[in-house]
UniProtKB/TrEMBL annotation:
GO terms for cellular component: plasma membrane. K(+) binds at residues 111-112, 220-221, 319-320, 436-437. Pfam families: TrkH. The chain crosses the membrane at residues 12-31, 37-57, 69-90, 136-163, 184-204, 240-258, 278-296, 336-362, 397-418, 457-482. InterPro entries: Cat_transpt, TrkH. The keyword Transport applies. Signal peptide: none annotated. It is a multi-pass membrane protein. Keywords: Cell inner membrane, Cell membrane, Ion transport, Membrane, Metal-binding, Potassium, Potassium transport, Transmembrane, Transmembrane helix, Transport. Belongs to the TrkH potassium transport family. This is Trk system potassium uptake protein. It comes from Bacterioplanes sanyensis. It is found in: Cell inner membrane.
């Protein structure tokens, strides 16, 4: 383990992150919202911590290997979430406690969108910008993690995407080619954000809200500058723009990466992708069940059922968490249906949360194979994606991930129940945080501000586990990981 190199990387990372305090500081100065000093102090503190970490080891050079990658990945989210909480504590409004500020910052970085803040409409513009910016930066980090790093680390079936993995696998080094892939992904991510912001602006948002909501939309984060979220604008055009960009951002950025470099074959590549087809099948199925149910129960008229049904299904299924209506009070099975869809989540290699569509598809195919094996015990029946067989090693990793996902869910729910939360709130809060969805049911349908500090720390760990695909964090507590 190269701890000196890890300290050097984290030092550089913190110094770079400190510069992200400049945009909200400029926003604060523009709107004169009295938060400028908080961001200036945060900039100096974060830069100082980074500089002190980097200076003693600035000349150290070693190749980073797989074990270093696990530790850096976890520390990336932990350290940036911790330092990202500084402005939220230092600013008079909202002036959060350490627990609340860390929860809000981690929620932003993991693009969960669970908030402890009420009265969002009254927050300073700079704080509003900062919350959205956290999600946008976190979304970019997730893309690089999912497309460039997790496949190399072999996390829970992500070996499927080693075709997009930069660097040689044979020696398990994390090579500089990750930077090349990250640069291309950054360009795609930035272009999507610009296109989304311009679309929102044309549809009627002012420039500030258009940029702020484009950050959260492309990151599939769900933070908004209003308590009423997207519903504040009461615009079908804005809602449909959000739906389009949520769907695009929930697709594997490996597909976007391929399309970026092979424009002539881009459409064919999208159409042939098994995960994409399965993902859209799930979305379509949710809409087909939700829209008629809203209409037949008299919840809305036909047009409103179509409008709100499509938006909420896409928002929850992609784990974005934007709202135009409170789906938690919808009739019959609808709240649970939408909530369960978030367990599938977006595609692997996207900014979405959940178990990922590719894993659920492989589990389904494996189940079908087991049924066929009961009928034909001696048959050799491979599991395929498209025409390509999937290796048994990948299938084992997917099942291992699923087992850990279920166990993690049970343990975290029991821990939340021990803090005094009711069953519905505990069940939905764990699901919303583990799937990086945000809004839940019961006492966390609107916000997380009323639950205890102990519950917030449990849910913070849950958000981190969900975002880091569980294995990445749990491997660090394995004794074998620390043996030389």
């Amino acid at each position: 383990m190269h701890f000196t190199v890890i300290a050097r990387v984290l030092g550089i990372l913190l110094m770079l992150f400190s510069l992200t305090m400049v945009p909200p500081m400029l926003v604060s100065m523009w709107y004169d919202d009295q938060a400028t000093q908080a961001f200036a102090m945060a900039l100096l503190i974060i830069f100082g911590i980074g500089f002190v970490s980097w200076l003693p080891v600035r000349r150290v050079r070693h190749d980073l290997r797989t074990r270093d990658g696990f530790l850096i990945t976890v520390l990336f989210w932990l350290v940036l979430s911790l330092t990202g909480s500084f402005p939220l504590m230092l600013a008079d409004n909202p002036g959060l406690s350490f627990t609340d500020a860390f929860f809000e910052s981690l929620s932003g970085w993991t693009t969960t969108g669970a908030t402890v803040i009420t009265g969002i409409d009254e927050l300073p513009k700079s704080i509003l910008w900062y919350r959205q910016q956290l999600q946008w930066l976190g979304g970019m980090g997730i893309i690089v993690l999912a497309v460039a790093i997790l496949p190399m680390l072999g996390i829970g079936g992500m070996q499927l995407f080693r075709a997009e993995t930069p660097g040689p696998i044979k020696d398990s080094k994390l090579t500089p080619r990750i930077a090349e892939t990250a640069k291309a992904l950054w360009n795609i991510y930035l272009m999507l954000t610009i296109a989304c912001a311009v679309s929102y602006w044309i549809a009627g948002m002012d420039a500030f809200d258009a940029i702020a909501h484009s950050f959260a939309t492309v990151a599939i984060g769900g933070f908004s500058t209003y308590d009423a979220s997207i519903g504040h604008f009461d615009s079908a055009a804005i809602e449909m723009i959000a739906v389009i960009f949520m769907l695009i951002s929930a697709l594997n950025f490996g597909l976007h990466f391929f399309a970026w470099h092979n424009k002539a074959q881009a459409l064919v590549h999208y159409v042939r992708d098994s995960e994409l087809k399965f993902f859209f099948f799930i979305i379509a199925g949710g809409i087909v069940l939700t829209v008629p149910a809203l209409y037949l129960t008299g919840t809305y008229g036909w047009q409103e059922s179509l409008r709100f049904g499509i938006f909420e299904v896409v928002s929850v299924a992609t784990t974005t968490g934007f709202g135009t209506a409170d789906f938690s009070v919808w009739p019959i099975f609808l709240p649970v249906l939408l909530f369960m869809m978030a367990f599938i989540g977006g595609c692997a290699g996207s900014t979405g949360g959940g178990m990922k569509a590719i894993r659920v598809l492989l589990i389904h195919k494996q189940g079908v194979r087991e049924i066929r094996r009961l009928i034909h015990p001696n048959a050799i029946i491979p599991v395929k994606l498209g025409n390509a067989p999937v290796s048994e090693r990948v299938l084992e990793a997917v099942w291992g991930f699923f087992a850990l996902y279920v166990i993690t869910y049970m343990v975290m729910m029991l821990a939340l129940l021990a803090t005094g939360l009711d069953h519905v709130t505990a069940f939905s809060a764990v699901g919303a945080c583990l799937n990086n969805l945000g809004p839940g049911l019961g006492d966390v349908a609107a916000h997380y501000g009323d639950i205890s500090d102990a519950a917030k720390w449990i849910l913070s760990l849950t958000m981190l586990l969900g975002r880091l695909e569980i294995f990445t964090l749990l491997v660090l507590i394995s004794p074998a990981f620390w043996r030389s």
